[in-house]
Amino acid sequence: MIGPTTTYLGSDSAVHLSEELEDASYVLPRAMCASAIVNYGLGFVMTITLMFNLGDLDDDLTSATGQPWAAVIQKITRSKAATIVLIVVMIVMIFAFARDKGLPFHRFLSKVRPNGVPANSVYVTFSVTCLLALIIIGSTTAFNIILSVSATGLFTSYLIVIGTMLAKRLRRESFPASRFNLGILGWIVNLIAICFLLVAFLFLFFPPAPNPGPAAMNWVVLIYGIAIFFAATYYFVRGRREYEGPVMHVRKDV
Question: Which residue ranges does UniProt annotate as crossing the membrane (predicted)?
Answer without folding.
Answer: 31-52, 81-98, 119-139, 145-167, 179-204, 216-237
